[in-house]
Specification:
about 250 residues; 2,3-Dihydroxybiphenyl 1,2-Dioxygenase, domain 1; 8-stranded mixed β-sheet; 16 strands; about 40% strand
């Protein structure tokens, strides 16, 4: 937990630090079976009536959420949320820098305020202004969030955009970012749109890949070596892509 504490200020995670992830799934119960066995998660309702979402817990600490899709036209995806003390203000900065507002900041039953935005290339990410819920209770260990990788078509523009939004988290004194940027073509075919790929830590990549296949998921790429560890890109049985990260 030392890494977790080091990236949190007195009020929670500092602005620009990935602080939460959720998956929008057609079948939350199927998601619970898949991720519960893969990562050892248990599940519980949040401490407030946060829609129909469930929290994934590792040893009692919240590490992610599974959320039912309310519109079948929406993608089945994992979304990463970046911490901010002011979701409305950050949303305005996103649009001023050439991004787009996807869903306006919305209070979540006292837990915090959430918004969805997109960068100038169209990669969607979330903003989280903490209320009672600061974000991850555990991370950087097997079964928890370990990294967020943006795959983009324009690295220079992405660096300018995110460097402007999250300068202190990425480049400030003592920063230890767990958010990287890479060309889409490094891993994916050219038609793949820019997107964020959430990485979960595992202790043994080969064993985790075996579990993904056994549970009805699919191996999309890898394993391959990245600057931040051994990575394999997979998807669950409902098509939500994520990565396994061994360090």
């Amino acid at each position: 937990m030392a890494e977790n504490r080091a990236s949190m200020n007195e009020e929670g995670y500092g602005e620009g630090v990935p602080c939460w992830v959720d998956a929008q799934l057609p079948d939350v119960e199927a998601g619970k079976r898949f991720y519960g066995e893969l990562f050892g998660w248990s599940f519980a309702r949040p401490p407030a009536a946060y829609g129909s979402s469930v929290w994934a817990l590792l040893d009692g600490s919240p590490v992610a959420a599974l959320t039912p899709k309310t519109d079948g036209r929406m993608p089945t995806v994992w979304t990463v949320y970046f911490a901010t003390p002011d979701a409305e203000g950050l949303a305005r900065r996103v649009t001023a820098a050439g991004g787009q507002l996807v869903t306006a900041p919305l209070p979540a039953d006292g837990l915090g305020t959430a918004a969805l935005v997109a960068d100038p290339d169209g990669a969607v990410f979330g903003l989280w202004q903490a209320g009672a819920h600061p974000g991850f209770g555990r991370r950087h260990e097997p079964g928890t969030f370990g990294w967020a990788q943006l795959y983009t078509r324009d690295i220079d523009r992405a660096n300018d955009f995110y460097g402007g939004l999250f300068h202190d988290a990425l480049f400030g004194s003592g920063a230890a970012p767990d958010f990287g940027r890479a060309p889409v073509s490094d891993v994916f075919a050219a038609p793949m749109p820019p997107h964020f790929l959430v990485h979960f830590r595992v202790a043994d990549t080969a064993a985790a890949l075996g579990a993904v296949s056994r549970l009805g998921g699919r191996i999309q790429a890898g394993p391959f070596e990245a600057s931040y560890g051994t990575v394999a890109v997979v998807s669950d049985g409902q098509g939500a892509s994520f990565a396994l990260l061994e360090r």
